[in-house]
Amino acid sequence: MQRPPNLMLKPGPDAVDEQDLIANIKKGVMVCRGGVFTDYQGRTGSGNGMLLLREIVNGKLGAVLEGANFLFNTSQFWNDVVAIGGRKSAEWHGLRRMKGQPAQQTTYSVSAVPIVVKDMAIIDSTRKA
């Protein structure tokens, strides 16, 4: 099984933390925890794993959004980033990738800073059609 590379989202040049990023957002959603799934062509994606999304209301974190998920178009995603956290907001995460028959797994790490992305599609994954 091919091991993914260790990935790092380079922090912005300013000393911007998570609170600074959300301070001027009137209404939004913060993805506090979760993974991302993309299709095999890498064109579309959605939230994945143990997601935790919270409301942002007038620059402050609000309620947890039960059943919330997000969707995105990979080719547009990076064009929609409008702000990026600074060095003090960076966090390292150890991840594991697994696949089917025979069972195989590998580990890798990701360093990420918070970002603000405009126009993300938020859905209720518990809603019945």
Detailed description of the structure:
With 129 residues, this protein is mostly beta strands. It has one domain. 7% of the residues lie in helices and 53% in strands. The longest helix is centred in the N-terminal third of the chain and has 5 residues. The mean pLDDT is 81.
Largest sheet: 5 strands, antiparallel
Compute the number of structural domains.
1
Query: Helix/strand/pairing class, anyone?
Result: mainly beta
The number of distinct helices, counting runs of at least 4 residues, comes to: 2
Tell me the radius of gyration: 16 Å
Uncertain residue segments: none
Apparent shape: globular
Question: In a nutshell, what does this entry contain?
Answer:
This protein has two helices and ten strands; from the N terminus they run βαββββαβββββ.
Keywords:
single chain, mainly beta, 129 residues, three-stranded mixed beta sheet
